Every structure is written in C-alpha cells, then in structure tokens.
Amino acid sequence: MMKHTAYLKLPVVILVSGFTILASFFWFRTSQASERNQQTEEYCLSCHSNPELEMTLPSGEVLPLYVNPEKLPESVHSPNGIECEACHTEITTYPHPPIEYETRRELSRSYYAACQKCHPDNYTKTLDSMHAQAAEAGNLDAPVCTDCHGTHYIQPPDEPRTLIPSTCGNCHTTEYSVYQSSIHGNALVQESNPDVPVCTTCHGVHNIQDPTTQQFRIDEPDLCASCHADPEMMSKYGLSADVYSLYNLSWHGVDVSVYEARWPTIQHQSAICTDCHGIHDILSPDDPNSSVNPANLLVTCQKCHPGVGPNWTGAWTGHYEVSLERTPFLYYVDLFYTYFAPAVLWACGIYVALQFIRFMADRARRSL
Amino acid sequence: MTSQSVPTPPSPANNVKLVRTFPRFSVSQRWEHALLLLSIAILLLTGLPQKYNTSTWSQAIISTPERLYIIQQVHHIAALLLTALVIYHLGNALSLIFRRKLPGDILPTGQDIKDAWNMLLYLIFIKKQKPAFGKYNFEQKVTYWFLFFSISIMGISGYVMWFPEAVTRILPGGVIPAAIMAHSTEAIVTLIFIVLWHFYHVHLERLNLSIFSGWLNEEDMHTYHSLEY
C-alpha cells in the first residue's frame, strides 16, 4: 500500500521539483541581472555623482565627469539594464586607463560609435547623411548621434513632438525661428497639432539628404502631397485634397512630371510647391504675409516671370477645378470641346462609313 | 472603258486614246496646299509628342531636354510657315475681293445644304442618284472651311501660348489656360477630321491628285463635277 502510494506520487514530485528548478532559474537570472545593473551604476556613481568631478583635456577644455544620479534612471537605457560599460567599453575598473583625446569634440566623435552596437540600422543610415558628408568635408561640428539624442539622459526623441524642431534648431537657428512662425510650426507649438510636419517629416531622420539637390527638388511635390493629397487629413482642416492632382494637370505640374519621369537629375525651371508657397516660412494663403496671398501673388509670379502685368495671376489654375466663376474662358472652351470633339468624330465617322457602304453596294450590284 | 470624245485631228493609231484634261488648281494654289500639308505634318509630328508626354513613343522621341528644345523650335518654325501661308492666302483673297475678281466657288451656299441632304438620302438608299456638283462639292467646302476654322483656333491659341506675357498685358490671364486647352484639343479634332474625312475623300473614294497635278481628267470631271463639266 505504502509502495503503491509512493509510486503514484512520483510523477507529481518530478513535475513539482522540475517546475521549481525552472522557476528558480528564471528568478535567479532576473535577480542577478538587476543586481548587477544596480551594482555597476552604483559603483560608477560612487565617484561620478560628485558634481565637482571634472578633468582638463590637453586642449585646455574642462571635461565634466558628473553624472546626475536622479536623472540617470529616467533615461531609456538605464531601466533596461544598459549600463555604463555598454558605452564606456574601455573602462572596466578603477583606476581608469588614461583619456587620450585632445578635445571634448574628439571624445564625442569617438564615443558615439558605441551606438552602432545596438542601433546598427540607424547608425548606418547616418553614414549616408548630409551631416556625415559635412564631417567628411572637415566640419567636425557636424552632429553625431549624441548631439541630437543626448548622452546619459537619453529620452524618446519625439516626446513631446515639439522637441524635434527645437533639437534641429540648436544648430539650424534661422530655419527654426522661421519654421516657428510658419503655419506648420505655429500649429505645432500653439495647438500641439499631431499632423503638421516637423523637420524630420520632410528631411528624413537619420539619412538626412541635401535639400538643395535636383533630386530633392523633383521629389518635393510628392513630399507635400503625402499630407496635402490625403483627403482624410485635409478634411480635418477644411483644406482641399485635390491641390496636388490639379497641380499635376497645370503647365508647371506637367513640366515637372516630365522631368521627374525622365530626367530627375537635370535642373528644371518649372515651379514646384515651395517656389510659390515658401519652404520653412509657409503661411496660409489667407495670411496677408503669405507669398500666395492674392495681394502678393503677382510679386511671387514675377520671381520667375519678370515684368509680367497684373492680369498674369489670372492664368494660374493649378489648384482649382474648371468653374464658370473662377475661370470663365476655360469653362466655355471646355464646354465647347465636350460637345464639338465627339460631334466631329461621329459626324465624320458615320458619313464616311455610309459613303463606303453605298460605294460597296453599288459595286456589288454592278458586278451581278 | 467608255469612249472619249476625241477632238480633231484623229489619232494616228486606234489604240491611242486622248485624254482631255481640265484645269482645276493654279500653280500658286498647288504650292499653297503643298506648304500647308508640310507645315501641318510638322506641327502634328512635333506637337503630339509634347501632348502625349507620358507615352513611351513620345519618350523615345523626346529623350533629352535638348531634343525637347529642338522639337519646340521646329514647331515654332513650322508655325511661322503656316502663319505666312495664312497671311498670303487671306491677302490674296482680299486683293481679289478688292478687284472684284474673287471666284465664289468655295463660298457656302444654300445649294450645299440641299446637296448634303440629297447626298444623305442617296447614302441611305432612298435616292438612286447622287446630286450633281459644281467645281467644289459640299464635302470639299466642308474640308476647306473646317480647316479654316481649325487653323484659326490653332494659330490664335498657339500665339497666346508662345507670347503669354504680351497677351496678358491686354487680355485677362484666364485666356492662357483656355488657349492651352483649345490648342491641345483642337489639334486632335483636326487630326481626326483630316484622317477620317479628307483622307477618305482623296485617297479611298478615289485617288484625287488634282491638288498636286493641277488638273482633273474628263471622267472624274464628268462623275464628280458634272455641273462644272
């Protein structure tokens, strides 16, 4: 009986003990990781939490060595167990090996390569960017990862969204202040608008390209269209989502589409969105300062069409459907050809077909 | 073969047949037609690739911006040729009117409407006989006046597109998009008209080369222009 009971209990014992071993294994692993995390940070912070800790580099620059122990746990890395030595790979013990950088900038430009270990895609993208090109050309102030994202206290870069333009604005001060007064920038700051473009919407994020190239110019209408041809988004603001498709039918739009399809790298003169609406300074057409406000439109046209008279602006139909009120000449020409073209086609076709049938019938009758 | 009325002297051999010819177009009219044909052909060949810019055949022709520039220049030169032709034609007509020597053959008359109606009845097998025509039948008058209208539209709209800055000094800006649409659409209407109507009548119905040779033979004269004959 006893034997029998023990025999019955055996699988239960194995299951329970196996589960306990497995559970303890997980418990052991997590506890060990968090312990080590805390240990490393605590160990480093035992010195580096001193606000007066600093050293002087050979260039004479002072390198602060202080790490704020309150802010550090709020970064994206620390709570995820990514610790000091993840980036400071050469420092494993105390005393530290000597710092061999001449300047602070040299140090930053060397240290940021550590980002590559965990963020290889974004790191590779930056190598293709305008900023990398500037660095290659000798401008060592060209930003690296840490210049935009920060170092010890890295936070999500787009929370809040206003952070993006202000980050770019650290260097691009003129563009930033112009953007802030534009309809897009103003809506971002005043209304926390989630739809308006920020710098990265148009320029890209890590692989930011030169916006003065022909390729950028030729792609630009499509860029604007990614929002302005979206009926759902435009209806929220009472804007027309047809501006792009109608532009594509206009003289400028046809010209641009030919270049886009065939010669994207060749300089063309036809107006794209930004030529009339502005770039960072885009305003609502109702704004008296807008370059496309009816009061300013002629001057805007004259940038490319010097010396044209005041009637010239009436030639622009690029964002409007054909209508009797706005474009009466076009309306009547359109109306005329709506009937005239098919009428000519059918009249000629039917008349000639009848003539041919009669001719063949006569011929057949004669040969009988 | 129908026997021809043979004027004296009689032919030396019986198998030789004399063909009477009837003058139809003057040398200057034949030149006008040749230059008109040339200029319209060039205008269509250089205009259509610009209109149908998204098609592959157009992209084969306009392969570089330089070619586009050349094609536009050729289009402008052909337009100038056509303009010169129109000015000559109208000037000539005005001078003939002034001297009261304008032959009225091409002017539309009430008879043309009757002819068209009778022709239609003939074509739908109600009448047995075609109506008899004079020097220019109503089909030829339609050809002339349709192209007169087409060339006017194409010319006016073409110059509006060529010199938009100057045009908008006088006319409202709205005429420019209207001219673009008219030029583009009228070109196609004209092309359809020439191919269907004109080519049928001068190539398929019968090969009528009188605009190049200047004359018609007796049989054609008898068949198609019995009133004049």
Summarize the structure.
The complex is a heterodimer of chains A (368) and B (229). Chain A is mainly alpha-helical.
Describe this structure in words.
Chain A is mostly helical and 368 residues long. Among the domains of chain A are: 37-133, no CATH class; 325-362. Helices cover 54% and strands 2% of the residues of chain A. Chain A has helices at 2-48, 84-87, 104-111, 120-127, 130-136, 145-149, 163-169, 173-181, 183-191, 199-203, 214-228, 231-236, 243-247, 251-262, 273-277, 297-302, 328-367; strands at 54-56, 62-64. In chain A, strand 1 and strand 2 (62-64) form a beta hairpin. Chain A starts with a helix and ends with a helix. The model of chain A is unreliable at 30-37 (pLDDT under 50). Chain B is mainly alpha-helical and 229 residues long. Chain B has 2 domains: 1-24 and 111-229, Transmembrane di-heme cytochromes, Chain C (Fumarate Reductase Cytochrome B subunit), CATH 1.20.950.20; 25-102. Helix content of chain B is 66%, strand content 3%. Chain B has helices spanning 27-51, 56-61, 65-98, 110-123, 138-162, 164-170, 175-204, 210-213, 218-224, and strands spanning 21-23, 215-217. A two-stranded antiparallel sheet of chain B has the order 1-2. The longest helix of chain B is centred in the middle third of the chain and has 34 residues, at 65-98. The radius of gyration of chain B is 22 Å and the shape is globular. Mean pLDDT of chain B is 86; it is low at 1-6. Chains A and B meet through helix 14 and helix 17 of A and helix 4, helix 6 and helix 7 of B.
